[in-house]
Design goal:
309 residues; alpha/beta; Arc Repressor Mutant, subunit A; D-Maltodextrin-Binding Protein, domain 2; 2 domains; two-stranded antiparallel ribbon; 10 helices; 23% strand
Length: 309
Amino acid sequence: MNRNFDGLMLGSIELFCRTAELASFTAAAVQAGVTQAAVSRSVSRLEARLGVQLFVRSTRSVRLTDKGRAYYEQCRQALGQLVEAERELTGDQVVPTGLVRMSLPTSYGHFRVLPILARFKASYPQIELEVQLSNQNVDLVADGMDLAIRARNPPDSGLIARKIEDAELVVVGSPAYLKRKGRPKSPDELGRHDCIQFERPRTGQAIPWLLRADGTEVEIETRGSLRITDDVLGLSTAARSGAGLAQTYRFIVVDDLASGRLVEVMRQFGGTSRPFSILYPAHRHMPHRVRVLIEFLLERLRPAGSPRV
């Protein structure tokens, strides 16, 4: 390393992080058991060393600058790794503690992950969870995320992907729609149906439907006057209203199918799926709290009998 970080500098970084989290020099001083002037001097010393302004100061509060926010995320992770390393060396890691931040797709988060987090919290009450529900790809390091779950692995060699499951796709419609337009029996008949489109937000292109014919998965281009973007949950909502047919994940509509609000069609052409995986940085030391969450998710979400990878 080109720079040596002595205890004084590490102390300044710790006080900077406390100030960023509490948005107050006074509150950071009280929590650290030092004077407000000591906190202010430490932050000023850090800004001078870095050559950047970390906070915008006013008479009543302080807030991070853009560069300060980026620096805080890196410092928070680094300090957390130091604490984890010390705990592992001393054996003080019987009960994992601390914050885990994860990013989940909206549909998978609502229907698969959020319903089981209460059980995780019961087993690990000292772990705090922060969940971001978003369908956009995230930069785990830049955004300060410990892990993400995605349906498609981004082309990033710096990430490790551990597959959770293959989520089955189904084609559904409401009883009212099927009574009005008839029930399709093959992919060739989809051309005369209103097929609700799901578009990729960045390209605006509709995602083809995946169906199975003669044992092979094939992509089917469909047509429709209703397009949904960004949130997959809109497909099932629109289908329930009678707007048309939709292809979505079975885990989203399992209750609708059981109640009769939606009806599965062309089941003989089904059996297709898309994989969901847990992603995390390959180069980062993994804290114990992150490791136990990953193992919990793999254990709870994988179908019975699936191999561990």
